[in-house]
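Exercise 7b. C-alpha coordinates:
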Protein backbone atom coordinates (compact mmCIF):
# COMPACT_ATOMS: atom_id res chain seq x y z
CA UNK A 1 0.00 0.00 0.00
CA UNK A 2 1.43 3.36 -1.05
CA UNK A 3 2.16 6.12 1.46
CA UNK A 4 -0.55 8.39 0.04
CA UNK A 5 -3.18 5.67 0.50
CA UNK A 6 -2.04 5.06 4.07
CA UNK A 7 -2.35 8.73 4.85
CA UNK A 8 -5.87 8.82 3.43
CA UNK A 9 -6.89 5.85 5.59
CA UNK A 10 -5.39 7.49 8.68
CA UNK A 11 -7.28 10.74 8.05
CA UNK A 12 -10.51 8.83 7.43
CA UNK A 13 -10.11 6.86 10.68
CA UNK A 14 -9.46 10.09 12.60
CA UNK A 15 -12.59 11.70 11.19
CA UNK A 16 -14.75 8.67 12.04
CA UNK A 17 -13.34 8.51 15.58
CA UNK A 18 -13.98 12.22 16.11
CA UNK A 19 -17.59 11.85 14.94
CA UNK A 20 -18.21 8.92 17.28
CA UNK A 21 -16.72 10.83 20.21
CA UNK A 22 -18.81 13.90 19.41
CA UNK A 23 -21.92 11.75 19.27
CA UNK A 24 -21.27 10.51 22.82
CA UNK A 25 -20.41 13.89 24.30
CA UNK A 26 -23.22 15.79 22.62
CA UNK A 27 -26.12 13.54 23.56
CA UNK A 28 -29.37 15.55 23.35
CA UNK A 29 -30.42 17.25 26.57
CA UNK A 30 -32.90 19.95 27.61
CA UNK A 31 -32.76 22.15 30.72
CA UNK A 32 -35.75 23.42 32.74
CA UNK A 33 -35.67 26.15 35.43
CA UNK A 34 -38.66 27.79 37.11
CA UNK A 35 -39.68 29.40 40.45
CA UNK A 36 -42.99 28.62 42.18
CA UNK A 37 -44.61 30.32 45.19
CA UNK A 38 -45.41 27.84 47.97
CA UNK A 39 -45.23 29.35 51.46
CA UNK A 40 -43.18 28.19 54.45
CA UNK A 41 -45.23 25.08 55.36
CA UNK A 42 -46.44 23.93 51.95
CA UNK A 43 -46.55 20.32 50.78
CA UNK A 44 -44.41 18.96 47.94
CA UNK A 45 -45.03 15.74 46.00
CA UNK A 46 -42.32 14.39 43.66
CA UNK A 47 -42.36 11.37 41.35
CA UNK A 48 -39.56 10.40 38.97
CA UNK A 49 -39.20 7.15 37.02
CA UNK A 50 -35.69 7.59 35.58
CA UNK A 51 -33.06 9.89 37.09
CA UNK A 52 -31.70 11.29 40.35
CA UNK A 53 -33.43 13.87 42.55
CA UNK A 54 -31.57 16.35 44.77
CA UNK A 55 -33.58 18.37 47.32
CA UNK A 56 -31.97 21.24 49.24
CA UNK A 57 -33.59 23.57 51.78
CA UNK A 58 -33.26 27.34 51.88
CA UNK A 59 -34.72 30.24 53.91
CA UNK A 60 -37.21 31.38 51.26
CA UNK A 61 -40.90 30.68 50.74
CA UNK A 62 -40.71 29.71 47.08
CA UNK A 63 -39.53 26.58 45.31
CA UNK A 64 -36.91 26.46 42.56
CA UNK A 65 -37.32 23.53 40.19
CA UNK A 66 -34.38 22.73 37.93
CA UNK A 67 -34.39 19.71 35.65
CA UNK A 68 -32.15 18.29 32.95
CA UNK A 69 -33.56 15.79 30.47
CA UNK A 70 -31.13 13.46 28.72
CA UNK A 71 -31.80 10.97 25.95
CA UNK A 72 -30.09 9.25 23.06
CA UNK A 73 -32.33 11.03 20.55
CA UNK A 74 -34.47 14.12 20.11
CA UNK A 75 -37.53 11.88 19.98
CA UNK A 76 -36.60 10.51 23.40
CA UNK A 77 -36.39 14.02 24.83
CA UNK A 78 -39.78 14.95 23.41
CA UNK A 79 -41.32 11.81 24.88
CA UNK A 80 -40.52 12.90 28.49
CA UNK A 81 -42.23 15.96 29.94
CA UNK A 82 -41.46 17.79 33.18
CA UNK A 83 -44.83 18.51 34.82
CA UNK A 84 -45.13 20.99 37.72
CA UNK A 85 -48.64 21.53 39.10
CA UNK A 86 -49.07 24.22 41.79
CA UNK A 87 -52.18 24.35 43.96
CA UNK A 88 -53.19 25.96 47.25
CA UNK A 89 -50.38 25.20 49.68
CA UNK A 90 -48.98 22.38 47.56
CA UNK A 91 -46.75 21.64 44.60
CA UNK A 92 -46.67 18.45 42.52
CA UNK A 93 -43.59 17.63 40.39
CA UNK A 94 -43.35 14.58 38.16
CA UNK A 95 -42.08 13.26 34.84
CA UNK A 96 -44.68 12.21 32.28
CA UNK A 97 -43.74 9.75 29.52
CA UNK A 98 -45.80 9.55 26.37
CA UNK A 99 -44.76 5.99 25.54
CA UNK A 100 -43.73 6.90 22.02
CA UNK A 101 -40.02 6.14 22.42
CA UNK A 102 -38.96 2.53 21.93
CA UNK A 103 -35.97 1.42 24.00
CA UNK A 104 -34.40 3.25 26.92
CA UNK A 105 -36.55 6.23 28.03
CA UNK A 106 -35.09 9.65 28.67
CA UNK A 107 -33.73 10.31 32.16
CA UNK A 108 -34.63 13.46 34.07
CA UNK A 109 -32.36 14.77 36.81
CA UNK A 110 -34.08 17.15 39.23
CA UNK A 111 -32.50 19.77 41.48
CA UNK A 112 -35.24 21.17 43.72
CA UNK A 113 -34.73 23.90 46.33
CA UNK A 114 -37.53 24.11 48.91
CA UNK A 115 -38.51 26.17 51.99
CA UNK A 116 -36.76 24.75 55.04
CA UNK A 117 -40.00 23.87 56.85
CA UNK A 118 -41.80 22.51 53.80
CA UNK A 119 -43.30 19.01 53.98
CA UNK A 120 -41.91 16.49 51.51
CA UNK A 121 -45.26 14.77 51.46
CA UNK A 122 -44.59 11.92 49.03
CA UNK A 123 -41.31 11.52 47.14
CA UNK A 124 -41.18 8.42 44.92
CA UNK A 125 -38.24 7.33 42.76
CA UNK A 126 -38.01 4.17 40.67
CA UNK A 127 -34.63 4.22 38.90
CA UNK A 128 -32.48 6.88 40.53
CA UNK A 129 -30.98 8.11 43.77
CA UNK A 130 -32.37 10.68 46.21
CA UNK A 131 -30.40 13.31 48.15
CA UNK A 132 -32.01 15.53 50.82
CA UNK A 133 -30.22 18.29 52.73
CA UNK A 134 -31.41 20.62 55.49
CA UNK A 135 -35.16 19.99 55.46
CA UNK A 136 -36.80 20.64 58.84
CA UNK A 137 -40.33 19.61 57.86
CA UNK A 138 -41.65 16.05 57.64
CA UNK A 139 -40.16 13.79 54.96
CA UNK A 140 -41.73 10.73 53.36
CA UNK A 141 -39.67 9.18 50.57
CA UNK A 142 -39.23 5.83 48.80
CA UNK A 143 -36.75 4.55 46.21
CA UNK A 144 -36.84 1.26 44.28
CA UNK A 145 -33.48 1.11 42.50
CA UNK A 146 -31.38 3.83 44.07
CA UNK A 147 -29.86 5.09 47.30
CA UNK A 148 -31.32 7.63 49.71
CA UNK A 149 -28.91 10.05 51.40
CA UNK A 150 -30.52 12.50 53.85
CA UNK A 151 -28.58 14.90 56.06
CA UNK A 152 -29.32 17.75 58.49
CA UNK A 153 -32.91 16.62 59.03
CA UNK A 154 -34.93 17.67 62.08
CA UNK A 155 -38.52 16.60 61.40
CA UNK A 156 -40.54 13.42 61.21
CA UNK A 157 -39.08 11.03 58.64
CA UNK A 158 -40.31 7.91 56.83
CA UNK A 159 -37.65 6.64 54.40
CA UNK A 160 -37.48 3.31 52.57
CA UNK A 161 -35.46 1.67 49.80
CA UNK A 162 -35.56 -1.67 48.02
CA UNK A 163 -32.19 -1.79 46.26
CA UNK A 164 -29.81 0.82 47.63
CA UNK A 165 -28.10 2.34 50.63
CA UNK A 166 -30.21 4.31 53.12
CA UNK A 167 -28.38 7.00 55.13
CA UNK A 168 -30.13 9.46 57.44
CA UNK A 169 -28.51 12.09 59.64
CA UNK A 170 -30.50 14.25 62.08
CA UNK A 171 -29.39 17.59 63.50
CA UNK A 172 -32.36 17.74 65.89
CA UNK A 173 -34.96 15.32 67.26
CA UNK A 174 -38.30 15.87 68.99
CA UNK A 175 -40.35 13.48 71.14
CA UNK A 176 -43.34 14.01 68.85
CA UNK A 177 -41.52 13.33 65.56
CA UNK A 178 -41.08 9.65 64.75
CA UNK A 179 -38.39 8.17 62.49
CA UNK A 180 -38.86 5.07 60.33
CA UNK A 181 -36.11 3.63 58.10
CA UNK A 182 -36.68 0.47 56.03
CA UNK A 183 -34.56 -1.36 53.45
CA UNK A 184 -34.64 -4.68 51.60
CA UNK A 185 -31.29 -4.97 49.81
CA UNK A 186 -28.89 -2.39 51.20
CA UNK A 187 -27.39 -1.08 54.44
CA UNK A 188 -29.09 1.39 56.77
CA UNK A 189 -26.98 4.03 58.54
CA UNK A 190 -28.61 6.31 61.12
CA UNK A 191 -26.89 9.22 62.88
CA UNK A 192 -28.65 11.02 65.74
CA UNK A 193 -27.56 14.15 67.64
CA UNK A 194 -25.71 13.97 70.91
CA UNK A 195 -28.07 14.15 73.88
CA UNK A 196 -31.16 13.08 71.92
CA UNK A 197 -33.91 11.22 73.76
CA UNK A 198 -35.43 8.31 71.87
CA UNK A 199 -37.13 4.93 72.07
CA UNK A 200 -35.19 2.76 69.63
CA UNK A 201 -36.29 -0.45 67.91
CA UNK A 202 -34.26 -2.23 65.20
CA UNK A 203 -34.76 -5.54 63.41
CA UNK A 204 -32.51 -7.13 60.80
CA UNK A 205 -33.46 -10.49 59.26
CA UNK A 206 -30.24 -11.45 57.48
CA UNK A 207 -27.66 -8.82 58.43
CA UNK A 208 -26.12 -7.55 61.60
CA UNK A 209 -26.84 -4.57 63.88
CA UNK A 210 -24.05 -2.29 65.05
CA UNK A 211 -25.24 0.29 67.59
CA UNK A 212 -23.78 2.64 70.19
CA UNK A 213 -26.98 2.13 72.19
CA UNK A 214 -28.60 -0.90 73.82
CA UNK A 215 -27.89 -4.60 73.44
CA UNK A 216 -28.37 -6.67 70.26
CA UNK A 217 -30.09 -10.03 70.71
CA UNK A 218 -30.20 -12.99 68.30
CA UNK A 219 -33.65 -14.44 67.66
CA UNK A 220 -35.17 -16.92 65.21
CA UNK A 221 -36.12 -14.17 62.78
CA UNK A 222 -32.76 -12.36 62.88
CA UNK A 223 -31.21 -9.77 65.17
CA UNK A 224 -33.16 -7.29 67.29
CA UNK A 225 -32.32 -4.22 69.31
CA UNK A 226 -34.49 -2.32 71.77
CA UNK A 227 -33.12 0.61 73.72
CA UNK A 228 -34.18 3.69 75.66
CA UNK A 229 -31.87 6.59 74.92
CA UNK A 230 -31.87 9.21 77.68
CA UNK A 231 -35.00 7.60 79.23
CA UNK A 232 -36.86 7.42 75.94
CA UNK A 233 -38.44 9.91 73.58
CA UNK A 234 -38.90 10.02 69.84
CA UNK A 235 -39.98 6.69 68.35
CA UNK A 236 -37.24 5.32 66.05
CA UNK A 237 -37.85 2.13 64.05
CA UNK A 238 -35.40 0.43 61.67
CA UNK A 239 -36.19 -2.64 59.53
CA UNK A 240 -33.84 -4.42 57.14
CA UNK A 241 -33.74 -7.73 55.26
CA UNK A 242 -30.39 -8.04 53.46
CA UNK A 243 -27.87 -5.50 54.70
CA UNK A 244 -26.37 -4.19 57.89
CA UNK A 245 -27.79 -1.62 60.31
CA UNK A 246 -25.52 1.02 61.86
CA UNK A 247 -26.74 3.40 64.57
CA UNK A 248 -24.41 6.05 65.89
CA UNK A 249 -24.31 9.39 67.68
CA UNK A 250 -23.03 12.54 66.01
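Sequence design result:
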Amino acid sequence: MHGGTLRRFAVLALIIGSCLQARVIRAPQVEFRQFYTLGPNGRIVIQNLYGDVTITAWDREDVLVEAVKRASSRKGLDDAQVIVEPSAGALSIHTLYGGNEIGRPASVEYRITVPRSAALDDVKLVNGGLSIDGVAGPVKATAVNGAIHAQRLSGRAELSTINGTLEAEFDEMSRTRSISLCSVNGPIRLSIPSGAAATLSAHNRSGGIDSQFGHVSREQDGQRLRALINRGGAQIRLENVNGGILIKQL
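Instructor comment: Residues 31-249 form one domain. The CA atoms of residues 204 and 223 lie 5 Å apart.
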